[in-house]
Amino acid sequence: MASQINVTSGRPKEVVNPSKAFPATDYLLAFEAAAKMQNFARASEALNLSETTVRRKVRFLEKYYDMPLFIHGHRSISLTQKGTVLLAAAEQSLDLLRDVSPDVPTHYLDNTVSIAAPNSVASLWLTPQLCKFKNTIGRIRVSVTASDNTADCMLDAMDLIIAHGDGHWPGYEAQFLFGETIFPVCSPSYLERHPEAMDSAALLQLDLIDVESSHTGSMTWDAWPRSTGHPTFPMDNVMTVNTNPLSVQAAVEGLGIALGSAHLVDALLDSGALVRPLGDTSIRERSAYYLLSNPLCESFPEKRIVKEWLLRLSADRKRYDDLDATIRSPTQKHRNKCQIGDPAQEI
Questions:
Q1: Both ends of the chain: CA-CA distance in Å?
Q2: Separation of alpha carbons 244 and 331, rounded Å
Q3: pLDDT tens digits along 190-231
Q4: What is the set of domains in the chain, with CATH numbers?
Q5: Which pTM was predicted?
Q6: Please, what's the b/e burial string for 286-300 (b: 16 or more CB within 10 A of its CB; e: otherwise)?
Q7: Is the distance from CB of 124 to CB of 265 less than 8 angstroms?
């Protein structure tokens, strides 16, 4: 069943590090007002700011450009020669922003970008990334549909689709996001109670958390022994849930050991909520996650911005290129019904 999340990003936080950032607009506005009125007090009244704030912003610019901008008189100020040059450039830029600003919020808020993704990707990867989205992207609304039903995700109404497969979907442009490397994960407290989990054979005798095989294209505990070269045997110690996010959450809560997917559990590993009891032991899947878009559907600025943002996340992702990782053979692989081939992909 599909679930939906709506996210609207806010205004990016101001960054005012003079060694790394271009001066924020409000600093240039304070400088412009002081220059035109030749008085800090009158500039503060015009901007509805304290005089101290206006002076501080001007001092910031002087430090940033490493030059004096004003000559200070008894009751007034006047521009230095370099200040005059800066004022001309600032006015030109600020006037351009004043011209286009009234149209920007309405334009961007009118178009919502709809994204469809499997439950695991939407819950474990996309939604946490959207929390950072508001700090890096402007006023853009994003609607997320999470479903493990392929039909729910491949609707024409979706602007962007994250899908699991081999990269070939007729009628869609597919761009690689990240591959899939599978490994056991559990909570630190569970590993402390069961240190034998660090042995690959003994681990299979412990509390295992699995996902219904009909509900996922990923590895299951039933297939793990065959893929890692261990003998298979009936397992009576498996708790089954119906989605990957539930299995990961159960592992976080200390209920047992789940099979985690690289990139989807990275944040939980980095925070210490999960650990890898077998260290670098992993299984490399041949399928991967792709970003799909229909080239026949209308494009619009918000869609292009969100698409580029997702591809930047892909470019900056952690790499799982361990040469010791095991690659599952085609006969062992649980095929995803979206797949039309079997190329190996970079993780």
A1: 29
A2: 23
A3: 999 999 999 988 999 999 999 886 544 567 888 888 777 776
A4: 25-104 (1.10.10.10), 111-347 (3.40.190.290)
A5: 0.62
A6: bbbbbbbbbeeeeee
A7: yes
